[in-house]
Amino acid sequence: MKPTEIRELAMAFQKSRIILTAFELDVFTLLDKKNMDTETVAEGLNLNKGATERFLNALVGLNLLVKKEGNFSNNSHSMRYLSKNSPDYLAGLGHTNHLWDTWSGLTDVVKTGKAAHDTKVNERENEWLVAFIHAMHDRGMKQAPAQLAHIDLKGVNSVLDVGGGSGCFCMKFLNRKPNLKTVVFDLPNVLPISKKIVEEEGFSGRIDFYEGDFTTDELPKGFDLVFLSAIIHSNSFETNRELVKKCFNALNPDGKIIIQDWIMNDTKTEPVQGAVFSINMLVETEEGDCYSESEINSWFRDAGFTDSKKVELETGLGQVMAIKRIV
To answer: Which of 200, 217, 117 is nearest to 163 (CA)?
Structure first.
């Protein structure tokens, strides 16, 4: 790696902060299908005029705005992805904005081993939680069809999505098999957000909800498939071991468990996205991490699962599945 490449990596935060600030200020929605001069933008968003001029110029340089004869407007990219009026709006950047604060404390986290944000999900303020659930929904709705496409639903009549959040995976399962019984299991303060999103997406009455905390409560029983996407990375090794046992108990005979996450190699260095994401868990959680296939298989064995199999997804994520065989 060349020195220039190292410097580019080190300075990447500058462009990131410009985009996140523009998102936070909602610049792109203000400019939706409009041309505005600096003064109009500054007044519309209650900003300093001089600072706004420089800021908008930087967004032009990042190819997110167009400047013509002193007026600013969205380009096709910002119009489609960064205006709230677009169906393709990247709502998940709200959660990215929150991550900025915790990642800024990474040096202290590495020194102390203590998370920058030590509040559990069920204790977070509503603003953070709404942004988080919508971020997961936005990503899930886009990625779930490809992620679920290879899953065999023959003989599967019921699905339990543990920590299912917005219900996006249940929605995609239902698109494939409309008569499925689908249940989202999640925390008491998450489910009101879940129900609202399910209603907005037109799935009311087709997805059920079960309130609980999988670290302390048992899961509902009688399912053919238990699905856990982006769950294990928030927990300790021991919490996951116990959770997999609860999943075993929740399944019917010959039922399947599928864990979808960053599935690491034994050295915990690949995939690289997972190695970086493990730092996100370091700053965000007290015990979260990214786990290897061999670690997941040890939980499966302890719970009584057999026939473990791994599938690699195009996004870099992986799925590890196993079966509850009853002899």
So the answer is: 217
CA dihedral 60, 66, 67, 68 (to 10 degrees): 160
Rg (CA), the chain: 22
The answer to whether the CB of 317 falls within 8 A of the CB of 263 is yes
Q: Is the dihedral of CA 237, 107, 116, 81 positive or negative?
A: negative
Strands (DSSP E) contained in the chain are 36-37, 65-68, 71-74, 158-162, 181-186, 207-211, 223-229, 251-261, 306-312, 318-323
Q: Is the pLDDT of residue 102 over 90?
A: no
pLDDT over 90 at 247, yes or no: yes
Residue 122's pLDDT is: 58
pTM confidence score: 0.84
Task: Show the DSSP H helices in 149-271 as ranges.
Answer: 168-176, 191-200, 237-250
**Residue with tokens 């910002």, as numbered in its chain:** 78
Is there a contact between 28 and 82 (Cβ–Cβ < 8 Å)? Answer: yes
Q: Which two tokens stand for residue 221?
A: 């029983």
Query: Alpha-carbon distance 72 to 52, whole Å?
Result: 11
Closest alpha carbon to 201 in 142, 128, 141, 149: 141
Q: Give the span between the Cα atoms of 117 and 15, in whole angstroms.
A: 24
Cis amide leading into 271 (omega within 30):
yes
Strand, coil or helix: what is 61? helix
Residue entry with tokens 């700053």: 283
* Alpha carbons 81 and 96: distance in angstroms, whole number: 15
For residue 40, give the 3-state DSSP assignment: helix
Q: Tokens at residue 132, please? A: 């988080």
Q: In Å, how far are 60, 76, 86, 147 from 101, measured between CA atoms?
A: 25, 30, 27, 30
Q: Please give the Cα distance from 135 to 189 (Å, whole number).
A: 16
